[in-house]
Amino acid sequence: MLADLLDGVRARGALFNQTSMKPPWSLRFELGVQLTLAAMLSGQAWVISDQPVALGTGEIAIIKGPYTIADDPGTPPQYLVKSDDYCITESNVEACRFPEGPALLLSGAYQGPISERLLDALPPVTVVRAPNPLLDLVTAEMALARQGQRVVLDRMLDLLLVSSLRAWFDEHDAPAWYRTADPIVSDALRLMHEDPAHPWTVVSLAVKIGTSRAALARRFTAAVGEPPMAYLTSWRIALAADLLRDTDSTVAAIARKVGYGNAFALSAAFKRLRGMTPSEVRSMTVRNG
């Protein structure tokens, strides 16, 4: 299910290139993206979002929204990181080389649609303290200026994100869509995720999986915490919210993509679960731009 929620998410620009960070230092990241990965390749740091979180050498932080990273929580931001500070173009290979300095930061900004369910499952700052061998691969790739390096580094950061999320979910109170080990429940989740527009019922899901309606309803509710159709509704509404935010599709088109016959049916379900209509959500997204 993690693959479903990360589909379309891609790293942008691979590295923040800081020539030297000597105390006191503090960097403010406001790139307009929803998810950022940061790792200290050398030195120690603090990630400041809603509250300071320590980040040691080799540890990886996954951060939602704007944040500050500094040598000390009390150090005020000295530089606002912009998109130009990332190695973006294929011709800018030399600028993506590792600089010298006591503190070296690797940062990847992720663009593309990111599921609300994934964002809701994460704290403001997620820190994975177990070593990740992919960081060594990034360091090795950065040691040489090679053709295609930007693409390679971006894909390495994608792998870092997925492996870091898996490591964190394995050690913490992961959401039901990730943690369930019941094959019947896993199959039901997979079917709903793969084809949310299908007119699923508990009976049709049970037939497809090869179990009874009662067994599916009982085991799904026990594992996930809500009945299958309640989960399907919330999944469809989360997908609709993502589409309202990330596409220009009409409400009617989005309704059909997520399993509702028309815009009115989607609006009624959306209003019931979110307290506002799809049109109101889209207007809010445009205003917050």
Structural notes for this entry:
Residues 186-284 form the HTH araC/xylS-type domain. Keywords: DNA-binding, Transcription, Transcription regulation. This is AraC-type DNA-binding protein. Pfam families: Cupin_6 (PF12852), HTH_18 (PF12833). GO terms for molecular function: DNA-binding transcription factor activity; sequence-specific DNA binding. The protein is of the alpha+beta class and 289 residues long. The chain folds into two domains: 2-171, Jelly Rolls (Sandwich), CATH 2.60.120; 180-288, Homeodomain-like (Arc Repressor Mutant, subunit A, Orthogonal Bundle). The protein contains twelve helices and ten strands. The chain has helices spanning 2-6, 116-121, 134-142, 149-171, 176-179, 183-194, 202-209, 213-224, 228-246, 251-257, 263-274, 278-288; strands at residues 10-12, 26-29, 35-42, 45-48, 52-55, 60-64, 67-70, 79-81, 104-111, 125-128. The strands form two sheets. The chain has a five-stranded antiparallel beta sheet with strand order 1-9-3-6-10, covered by helices on one side. The protein has a five-stranded mixed beta sheet with strand order 5-4-7-2-8, with no helix packed on it. A hairpin with a 3-residue loop joins strand 4 and strand 5 (52-55). Helix 7 crosses helix 8 and helix 9 (228-246) runs parallel beside helix 12 (278-288). The model has no long low-confidence stretch (mean pLDDT 83).
